[in-house]
Amino acid sequence: MESVRIALVQMQSFVGKTHENLAKIKKHVQEAKKKGVQIICFPELAAQGYTRKRAKELAEISTGYCGTYLSNLSKEYDIQIIAGLIEKSENDKPYITQLIIDQGKINKYRKTHIGESEELYFTPGNELPVFASTLATIGVQICFDCHFPEVSTVQAIKGAEIIFAPHASPTMVKDRKEIWLKYLRARAYDNGVYVAACNLIGQNGDGSDFIGGTLVIDPKGNIIGEDFNGEEAMLIVDLPKEKINILRQNERKTMRNSFYLKSRRPEIYKELTD
């Protein structure tokens, strides 16, 4: 991994107002580029707005209008963009997808663990890919995915050095920071990865209200960036390469810098995964 500057956006996104949402994304990309950001992440379903009942109506293919717009932004500003999209599927239930766009090339992660309230409206994905670039290898988990430890472990074993965690967590959650710290710190520490989370914020025009928040945790479980001020904002954080590379490249001199996944014994865990 190279040292990298990332940006996380807590963003108000209105359902069905795709052009306005994308225009807002563009402004953040422009600002991020001026400040030397190399990877910018937007919340779950930021492009069309988070909705369940209108999901089928608003769904697009990954290379449709939203994907093409974001791809062009990535190329124009030479920045990696990670942004949420309602993606058409082969059936009536679309995917909750995060596009990962690098130099205009579109990759995607489909939310693999959907909540009970989403089961009637969305199709879960079935793959846990990681995405390598000259900067870093990244994994993506969307909201509910983060509650399942195996997801982070699989992505870290596959080489993920940064896990981005875009959310659509509502205001009913109350203290987003307190809840995130209960499990995102563990995901970072146990798997020796950076974890970077962001959330939708404010009302979406479709009856939902989101609590916002951005948080970055280093591979030892330490908070290195946060914003829970309750307003639309962009958090910029530098991720030094040394904290990952000392774990991954066998450069450690003490147990404190162990990459624990190297000592796994999957043969004795088999009964837990069958």
From TrEMBL:
Keywords attached to this entry: Hydrolase
Q: Which GO terms describe its molecular function?
A: hydrolase activity, acting on carbon-nitrogen (but not peptide) bonds, in linear amides
> A Pfam family this protein belongs to?
CN_hydrolase
Give the source's domain of life in one word.
Bacteria
CN hydrolase domain span: 4-241
Q: What is this protein called?
A: Predicted amidohydrolase
Q: What organism, scientifically named, is this protein from?
A: Desulfonispora thiosulfatigenes DSM 11270
